[in-house]
Amino acid sequence: MNTLCTEEIIAKYSATHLICDCAYPLITDSNLEEEAMLYNLGKQDMVDLMESFIRITGKSVNAASDVSTLSGGQKVVLLILFCLYSPAQHIVIINLSVSLDVDRYHTICTLINQFHLKKTELLIVYSDEMENKRG
Asked: How far is it, in rounded angstroms, from Cα 23 to Cα 9?
């Protein structure tokens, strides 16, 4: 598998793609609504995102939910959902498997495959830093 360091991935795609690094899944430590603002989600997209999150994780959330209370895996699921429901057409997801158990990983991969048709470009890459940790 070809890998790049995270800085190289960012340098290569940052001008044209929404970059989502699962090693650092959330930008704020606030509520779900504030985090969602960063992804320019519409109201219906936010409703759909919350329903998907509940279905995948079993954890009930709403716009006022404190994202800092989520587990690492739940934060990664939330990041992926923000990416997929965002209006961005060019997305790079870095280090997808971070903090996800096998079942959630497969669920997320299935969801990505469904959304892939709605996006112009959806790339999944792994940084060499993560490859070195995985052995």
From this structure: 14
3: Cβ–Cβ under 8 A, 6 or more apart, which residues?
Answer: 125, 126, 127, 128, 130, 131
CA distances (Å), origin 40, targets 36, 45, 111 = 7, 10, 20
Cα 9 to its chain centre, rounded Å, is: 16
Nearby residues of 51 by Cβ (< 8 Å), 6 or more positions away: none
What confidence category does residue 1 fall into, taking pLDDT thresholds of 50, 70 and 90? very low
Question: What is the per-residue pLDDT for 130?
Answer: 58
Tokens of 104: 């959630």
* pTM score of the predicted model: 0.89
pLDDT in tens, 59-75: 999 999 999 999 999 99
Nearest CA to 56 out of 75, 83, 31, 32 is that of 75
